[in-house]
Amino acid sequence: MKVHIKNILIWLSLCCFCSAALAEPFVQGGPIGSQTDDGFNALGPVVEQPIEFPHKTHAGNGPGQMNINCMYCHTYARRSNVSGIPRLDKCIGCHKMIESVRDKPRIKKLFEYWEKKKPIPWKKVHDLPDFVRFNHERHIQRFYFREHRPVREVCGYCHGDVGSMNTARRVKALSMGWCVSCHQKEHLENASTTKTSNGPNDCWQCHK
Amino acid sequence: MSSNKIDRRDFLRVLGISGAAATLAGCGNTSIESGAELVESYVQPEDFVVPGVGVYYASTCTQCGSGCGIMGRVREGRILKLEGNPKSAISGGKICGLGQAGVQMHYNPDRLTKPMLREGDGLKVVSWDKAMGVLNARLGSKSTLSGQQIAFLTGEISGHQKVLLANFLESFGSTNHVVYDALSPVVGHGANKAVYGVEQPVLQIDKARLILSFGNDFLGTGPSPVRMAAQYARFRKAPRGTLIQIEPRMTLTGANADRWYAIRPGTEGVLALGLAHSLLQHPEFAHSIPQELAAALKPYDKETVAEITGINADAIPHMASLLWEKSPSLVISGPSAEGHVHGFSNATAIHLLNLILDNRGKTLQGQANHPFPQLSPAFGSYTALAQLNQAMSAGKCEALLIMGCNPAFTAPTFVPFANNMGKVPFKVAFTTQLDETSRQCDLVLPILSPLEDFGTHVAGYQPAGVELMIQQPLMEKLYPETRGIGDILIDLLKQRKPDAYKAFPDYYAYLKTAVVKAKPVFKVKESDDDFWEDALRNGVLRLDLPPAPIDARVAAIKVSAPQATEMGMQYPFYFVPSVKADLRDGRHANLPWLQESPDPMTSVAWDSWVEIHPTTATQMQIREGDILEVQSATGSVRAKAYLFPGIQPDTVSMPVGQGHTGYGRYADGIGANPFKILDPNFDEQTGELAMYSTRVIIKKTGENAKMIKDEGPTTLQQGRKLVVTMAADQAELAKEITRVTQ
Question: Which among B318, B533, B98, B47 is positioned nearest to A89, based on CA atoms?
Fold first, then answer.
């Protein structure tokens, strides 16, 4: 069989990118209190939430875990600059059908909020300074819809492997140097090409 | 002179950021903090709601009387920005700076949030129950007030608010709806009515090849500036139209003109007659007006006119030849020509030119006759206020209700409105923010901002067909204890006339019923609910009607030269109060965006100033920033001198709108209020206050202060040291580098 050298090169480059990219989301920034090169905490503090929401049960892919796509609940991530906390009726939409866990304390608490029609006061875990405009839509459209990378990996670039956590905890620096380090990498333009490009390098992309 | 300190954080706070705990609590936050803020989600949002993505709703701008259709961008339940509504011919999808600042009026930190009742010398916060109790006791079912005993004082008002208000007064057997506007268009309307048979003809600016404007600032403060600016842009496209502006003090429109002539204030009519005389020399126009009128124009030869008006004699035949050459033309009069003792005759003399040039039906058309005249605006006038003031002074007024105007600030000194308010036993103000007038009232009710309330508006200037503008809330009310004026009136009317109003649970129900009733006029085949939904979605109900014809009543035109007054000896300067397109009569001085936006002519911000011609200033040895006392027979004000070549040398000018003493943190203590030095001169024909006929004397105080302005070399930093800079060759670079590395 005749193998074109060009094809080999494509395979090689694809493998390189995949291995680099796949490793990323599951690597934490470092131990708590440690700092990245540009001086930001690599691992955020544990944030207590009003309901200890088990991301693991919903998004994890282990035995007994639901393996739900992140964007089923964080539905705005592909449409807006913010991913949004899921609307309360979304939680209720499923859970009113799941009798087996209805008496669990966390679910009881959920229904208490629902009956009072009160939003759950979640604490913000992934915070950015006010002068930074991060856009979820751009990243999701690029990596999930155009490159068809796995959703847990795409979200995980910035949020870590939330599917293995209960309540979310910041595990990446979310600092400018950290953002730029990814923007400087070569990324495939879509799933069916070897053409690569960087993330934008202009100040105004984030500082408007 | 401005002592107002404002930093960036205060400025942001005006946008309402301080009120909302969760949304932007980390204002100025520069670090990443997990768990420091809340991110509350919706419980059950509408399907189209996406956090971070704006939704646009149509409404109507109420910042001035033009009635522009607007679209409000709403995100996460908050109104963020206003744009023009392309479905409205008035705005044509555009919006002006004044309209943009409507958001700040809504989020103003000085908004009144709770009802207040007079207790001794001060106003105390009370509950709505108590406030409505007081109101019902005085004006409810048991009230015996009638006729002149009750008065409702408002600014310009139209639509169903006006109807509801009239119905409320009618329940007392009263028609005493007093409409007051410090910048009243009544003289102009009167002259238009006399000559053309209509109060406000439609100006087809884009169809004219030459516009001759006597002090009409149609781009800045005219009847519909957004519409006219768009028309003006078309007028300037090839073949490029020519604009000639004649006025004592250069306005924004004057600054755009091809030729600008500084005229002695009040002599505009003489120049118009001189131009008419000059035009009649041409055989084409010789028989355009009756012979006796033509004969009466004989004395107005160019030398005489030049002597009176101060305009170069050769310019007059030049203007006349341009008028002849560039047809169709459009001649318009404006406030600075109309605000004189003979303002009415000035305006009719100016209109004579349109008749000679035969512009009727070409560039001047009548507004379409529309089927809901009861919704048309009531225009404010000085005479209405003067009459009310007299009734109050005589103790005939028992209850005074005030909304949308501030006579304590804008009324001239010789109308002691504020003092006479003391003679009225019960005074109620409906307002979004305390101002000089409402601070003297017995009961102050916080009403919804225009971005929170329903309403309808019919603009006084309908450029094409007729539009019934719909105003709808762009967000939930910011403060739970505010109520719409409509709801308050409906409550009172339920007391007064239970049978007629019991069908309406609230103002919304009333408005919907009233608008839906107009459905047959619009000839649409849809259900009532669909009609209403469409009206809300489009923000405008349009009727395409043909323009009405206008008359040519030559007999109304008076040929008379203004009489010289004795005042000239004692008070050598003419005084021109200039109107800023953003602050208007001062009602918008509480909006920091408008305070911060530099005046288009002088670039001054956050201040008042006295414009004086550089030649005059040199003669009087006045420099920029010298604090001058401008004294008239009525009073005096102080402001910094600003040397301005765009002014007639015998004239000084001050902007109106500043000098507030009780209108919130952004308005108070800034500048001076020239309304208070106006002389008691009145238009002979209409009795309106002649705003531009005051004479003053200028006195130097010997003090000097730095002007806050944007013009000049950037190194001056507008007097505020925004960014301190230094020329590179002056810097000791070696030192700088050491400092940086350390």
Answer: B47
Q: At B48, is the pLDDT very low, low, confident or very high (cuts 50, 70, 90)?
A: confident
Q: What is the pLDDT of residue B713?
A: 63
ipTM for this prediction: 0.77
Residue B584: which of B736, B421, B410, B724 has the closest Cα?
B410
Write out pLDDT tens, residues B239-253.
Answer: 999 999 999 999 999
Average of per-residue pLDDT values in chain B: 90
Among B26, B41, B53, select the one facing A79 at the smallest CB separation.
B53
pLDDT 10s digits, A30-75? 665 566 655 555 788 888 999 999 999 999 999 999 999 999 999 9
Strand, helix or coil for residue B319: helix
Residues of A at the B interface (Cβ-Cβ below 8 Å)? 40-41, 44-45, 47-48, 76, 79-82, 84-89, 113-114, 117-131, 169-170, 174-175
Amino acid at A45: P
- A53 and A104, same domain (yes or no): no
Report, as an integer, the average pLDDT of A129-156. 92
Distance CA B475, CA B74 (A): 7
Segments forming the whole domain that contains residue A70: 5-85+127-205
Using a CB-CB distance cutoff of 8 angstroms, which residues of chain B are in contact with residue A206? none
B651-655/B609-612 β-pairing = antiparallel
CB–CB contact B32 A128 (8 Å)? yes
Q: In this complex, do A130 and B45 lie within 8 Å of one another by their Cβ atoms?
A: no
- CA-angle at B564, arms to B560 and B570, nearest 5°: 160
Q: Which two tokens stand for residue B179?
A: 């409409």
Enumerate residues 6+ apart whose C-beta is below 8 A from A108: A102
B44 and A88: CB-CB below 8 Å? yes
Q: Please report residues of A whose CB lies closer than 8 A to that of B34.
A: 44-45, 47, 123-127, 169-170
- Residue B18's pLDDT band, with cuts at 50, 70 and 90, is very low
For chain B, percent helix, then strand, then coil, each to nearest 5? Answer: 35, 20, 45
- State the average pLDDT over residues B101-122: 96
Cβ-nearest to B35 among A40, A124, A128: A124
Beta bridge partners of B429: B402, B444
What is the distance of C-alpha B57 from the center of its chain? 25
- The CA-based angle B381-B375-B477, given to 5 degrees, is 95
Query: A30 to chain B, minimum CA–CA distance in Å?
Result: 16
Task: Provide the shortest C-alpha distance from residue A6 to chain B (in Å).
Answer: 44
Q: Among residues A95, A121, A147, which one ends one of the domains?
A: A121
Query: Is the separation of the CB atoms in B432 and B112 below 8 Å?
Result: yes
- What one-character-per-residue DSSP string does B593-634 give? HHHHSPPTTT-B-SS-EEEE-HHHHHHHT--TTEEEEEEESS
Q: Do A146 and A159 sit in the same domain of this protein?
A: yes
Least confident of A102-111, B498-507, B561-570, B681-690: B561-570
Q: What are the tens digits of pLDDT across the range B336-386? A: 999 999 999 999 999 999 999 999 999 999 999 989 999 999 999 999 999
* Among B335, B212, B348, residue whose Cα is nearest residue B270: B348
The count of domains in chain A is: 2
pTM: 0.86
d(CA B243, CA B208): 10
Q: What domains lie within chain B, and their CATH numbers? A: 116-181+380-447+482-502 (3.40.50.740), 187-365 (3.40.228.10), 567-719 (2.40.40.20)
Nearest CA in chain A to B27: A130
User: Is the CB of residue B501 less than 8 Å from the CB of residue B490?
Assistant: yes
First to last CA, chain B: 41
Question: Looking at the predicted structure, is the pLDDT value of residue B716 above 70?
Answer: no
